[in-house]
Amino acid sequence: MLNNEDGDYLIKIAKLSIESYLKKGEKLDVPKDCPDYLKENLGVFVTLNEKNELRGCIGYPEPVAPLIEATINVAISAAVNDPRFPSLTTEEFKNVSVEVTVLTKPEIINVNSSYDYLNNIIIGEDGLIVENNFNKGLLLPQVAIEHNMDVETFLGNTCMKAGLNPQCWLDSDTSIYKFQGQIFKE
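^ thats the sequence. predicted structure below, dont judge the formating
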């Protein structure tokens, strides 16, 4: 578990990464003062909000890179590579708030019946990944709270994020994973 100081540090690095990339086109180096425990491989998402509206969100759901490097990479991607939005401008960046969500490793939810998912997901605590063939979608834990979703709605929206029918979670060919996230906001 990370503490609030760690979260503030990751937010600072995310902001510096975006600023460096927007102004100079350069990727920020890992700071020399970075604590070793922030170099552990962990999943992370960076979310950008402008006037309480989503402006970009990109992340690594799996622990494929050191947390500090992953934060730098996904911060830049959230600013300039989220396909839902045009690249962030330097002027826009002044009005953007940054949120960093550090993830636990996703674990498959094993159930006897698809309806058992309803009792194995905790709103506000669990994020979801839905996977069926080549389709995959992810929603962070805070999305369910922000949009006042119950478990069934959260499952349906994660299916749609994967480009699938909202009822795909009932299909035995669909795999559902859950993870938790520590959320740090500006």
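The chain has a mean pLDDT of 96.
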